[in-house]
Amino acid sequence: MKKNVKLLCIVIIGVLASMFLPKQTRANDTKIFVMFRSEGRGHEVDWDAEDMQRILTNEEILNELEKRCEGVEFIGETNVVGIESAVKNLNQEKNIDGIVVFGPPPNELIETGLPIIVDP
Q1: In 10 A of CB 108, how many CB atoms?
Q2: How many angstroms separate the CA atoms of 17 and 99, rounded?
Q3: How far is CA 72 from CA 4, 31, 39, 44, 94, in A?
Q4: What is the number of structural domains in the chain?
Q5: CA separation for the pair 87, 92 (Å, rounded)
Q6: I need a labelling partner for 98 at 20 to 30 A (CA). Which of 55, 70, 71, 91 fits?
Q7: Please, what is the Cα angle at 33 between 69 and 70, to 5 degrees?
Q8: Which spans in 44-120 are helix H?
Q9: Does residue 7 contact residue 45 with C-beta atoms inside 8 Å?
């Protein structure tokens, strides 16, 4: 059976996010800022059923990350926000350990110096 690469990427993002953080920040206090650059990006998922594929919403992607990444709090919006709004939201949060961006990462987030995982 073929596995969907996008779902695998989502799982890898969560695992990498928790692996690269210092051990003392992994236990229930890891905060990852999430930004979606577009809606309906066309994340196709193979649910282990032949030819049964569908598009994941941003909410479903975030829910899957939260389920698979125990002890990680994902902060951010599932709806598309502008770069200025995302940076403002990020700056209002305390103790953010990293960033996950679904789409091209804006320079303003890169310049924060936080670790960034990108799903282009």
Answers
A1: 12
A2: 9
A3: 24, 6, 23, 24, 14
A4: 1
A5: 9
A6: 55
A7: 15
A8: 58-68, 83-92, 107-110
A9: yes
Q: Could you tell me the pTM of the whole model?
A: 0.67
Q: What is the Cα–Cα distance from 25 to 31, expressed in whole angstroms?
A: 9
pLDDT by residue for the chain (120 residues), tens digit each?
A: 444 555 555 656 666 666 665 555 445 579 999 999 887 555 445 555 555 566 788 898 899 889 999 889 999 888 888 888 888 988 888 889 999 999 889 999 999 999 999 987
Domain with 37 in it: 5-119
Tokens 């598009």 appear where? 55
What is the layout of strands, in order, in the sheet containing 98-102?
Answer: 72-76, 30-36, 98-102, 116-119
* Distance from C-alpha of 99 to C-alpha of 75, rounded to nearest angstrom: 9
Question: Which tokens is 3 given?
Answer: 């596995």
